[in-house]
UniProtKB/TrEMBL annotation:
<dbReference type="InterPro" id="IPR019734">
    <property type="entry name" value="TPR_rpt"/>
</dbReference>
<dbReference type="Pfam" id="PF13181">
    <property type="entry name" value="TPR_8"/>
</dbReference>
<dbReference type="Pfam" id="PF13414">
    <property type="entry name" value="TPR_11"/>
</dbReference>
<protein>
    <submittedName>
        <fullName>Tetratricopeptide repeat protein</fullName>
    </submittedName>
</protein>
<feature type="repeat" description="TPR">
    <location>
        <begin position="210"/>
        <end position="243"/>
    </location>
</feature>
<feature type="repeat" description="TPR">
    <location>
        <begin position="176"/>
        <end position="209"/>
    </location>
</feature>
<dbReference type="InterPro" id="IPR011990">
    <property type="entry name" value="TPR-like_helical_dom_sf"/>
</dbReference>
<dbReference type="Pfam" id="PF13431">
    <property type="entry name" value="TPR_17"/>
</dbReference>
<feature type="repeat" description="TPR">
    <location>
        <begin position="278"/>
        <end position="311"/>
    </location>
</feature>
<keyword id="KW-0802">TPR repeat</keyword>
<feature type="repeat" description="TPR">
    <location>
        <begin position="312"/>
        <end position="345"/>
    </location>
</feature>
Length: 408
């Protein structure tokens, strides 16, 4: 599960396309639709100008594994030209280069989809042999759903992105997951309105796809359209009442709206279903801390730190709990962990300084930490009060030492 939200500390849960076991690609073919539209439009125009009947056709995006030596693919264009011209029915197909290592093609005139699919597999294998490298391929067909011929070209790009998640020697046919990946990419680029259209299009193909419904809700959520988000999460829960990420997101909406007890109730339900989700344990601990149920909060925060020991936020809140319980030494230990993980955590820096003040030790270090917290958040009055208290304590010590010297 991955998390995204406009806040730095609270996040909607979302099963993104980067949940595949293989890392997502560094570059996306679908980005060409945003950055190099002319290349795609040129092929779409070429497709529209074909004189033969194209009532049904397949479009494929292919990429040669760029990890191979440049010398292997330096004569790519000539090799491809020769290769396609060797097909008896090559006049029923068109192709165009997209980059040094990728190209797009379309062909028609096949007897059945099965034979066409077999032909693509054969094409992939022959090209792989010719170039001595792996071939990635994304395929889209026309007709499909209500997509137009130009949109079929776009769908092939999305299918290629889908294939890229599984490695360089993969062939994927366009489906709802391909749309989900495309929408997630737009989401990552903060193009939320475009992402919403994609998620909705995916739901036209798979109306009960919980990932798409939840992702649509998250998109509405980060845009501040909380009522729309709530409706989507409710739809998802009707399909599966025990889907943890949706229960969590519903709880998060309650929390955003200030309904802490309803939020806690949702989070407890999510915890009962799966107690190994970091976001659930962390937010549940944080909200229990807010309503001053410290011991219950600490139990969930401990669980969160076991799941993700690299989260400084967990240690920071544990430190705040120990401050509230007047246990400054334990608070200092937790704040120290938080600051090591995030040296710019102003709350942890100030809390660490406060713990030293309460222990009446290392006050010069405490002043340094307090000043750093104010440098990060200059308008925070609590941080300023803590700095004044530390300085006053130092003055008291100095005055006492002066009196001792005078007496001597």
């Amino acid at each position: 599960m991955t998390v995204k939200f406009s806040s730095k500390e609270i996040h909607f849960l979302k099963k993104d396309s980067d949940n595949f076991k293989i890392k997502p690609p560094e570059t996306y073919f679908s980005d060409l639709l945003l950055t190099k539209k002319n290349r795609i439009k040129a092929f779409q125009k070429k497709l529209s100008e074909v004189t033969i009947s194209w009532n049904n056709f397949l479009c494929a995006v292919l990429e040669l594994n760029s990890d191979r030596s440049e010398s292997i693919i330096k004569n790519k264009k000539e090799t491809l030209e020769t290769f396609f011209n060797s097909f008896p029915d090559h006049k029923k197909g068109i192709w165009k280069c997209l980059s040094k290592t990728s190209f797009i093609m379309a062909f028609c005139g096949y007897e059945s989809e099965k034979k066409a699919a077999n032909r693509l597999v054969s094409l992939k294998e022959k090209l792989s042999t010719a170039f001595r490298t792996e071939i990635l391929m994304g395929v889209a067909k026309f007709p499909c759903h209500d997509f137009s011929k130009p949109q079929t070209v776009v769908n092939a790009l999305k299918a290629a992105d889908h294939a890229a998640f599984f490695g360089p020697d993969t062939l994927i046919h366009f489906d709802a997951v391909s749309i989900n990946i495309s929408a997630d990419r737009l989401y990552q680029l903060n193009k939320y309105n475009m992402a919403i259209k994609e998620y909705k299009k995916g739901l036209e193909i798979e109306p009960n796809n919980i990932n798409l419904i939840n992702s649509l809700g998250v998109c509405f959520g980060v845009m501040g359209k909380l009522d729309n988000a709530k409706l989507e999460f409710e739809k998802a829960l009707k399909i599966n009442p025990n889907e943890v990420m949706v229960i969590y997101n519903t709880g998060l909406l309650y929390q955003i709206n200030g309904n802490l007890y309803q939020a806690i109730q949702c989070l407890h339900k999510a915890h009962d279903i799966d107690d190994c989700v970091f976001e659930v344990e962390f937010l549940l601990g944080k909200l229990l801390f807010k309503i001053q149920q410290f011991d219950r909060a600490m139990a969930h925060l401990e669980a969160a730190s076991r799941i993700n020991p690299e989260s400084g936020l967990v240690f920071r809140i544990k430190g705040e709990i120990y401050l509230a319980k007047n246990q400054p030494e334990k608070a200092g230990i937790e704040f120290n962990k938080a600051v090591k993980l995030n040296p710019l955590d102003a709350v942890a820096l100030s809390g660490y300084a406060k713990s030293m003040l309460l222990q009446d030790k290392n006050l010069n270090i405490a002043i340094s930490l307090a000043k750093k917290s104010i440098a990060i958040q200059p308008a925070n009055s609590l941080f300023k009060d803590r700095l004044k208290a530390i300085m006053k304590k130092i003055e008291v010590h100095a005055s006492q030492e002066e009196k001792i010297k005078s007496a001597s």
